[in-house]
Amino acid sequence: MRTTVFSLALIMGLAAGPVFASQCPAMMAQIDEALQTADVSDADRERVMELRQQGEDEHNAGDHAASEASLGEAMDILGIN
Question: Comparing 15 with 46, which gets the higher pLDDT?
């Protein structure tokens, strides 16, 4: 019984990974859309673009927690969080 419960928990945990990973592209899309009309300084725009690229690089490397942190910071600057 314990083995079955543990196995089910492990399978559910592994299956949830792709769901959480898909949040990064959605965040990137929000940033891209907001940048088109954002009223921010040139320095803030440059920082957002750096963070957006960093987030994409981290996402592509499989570090989704770091990606979400970088993208979240960019979204904070844009006021969309």
Answer: 46
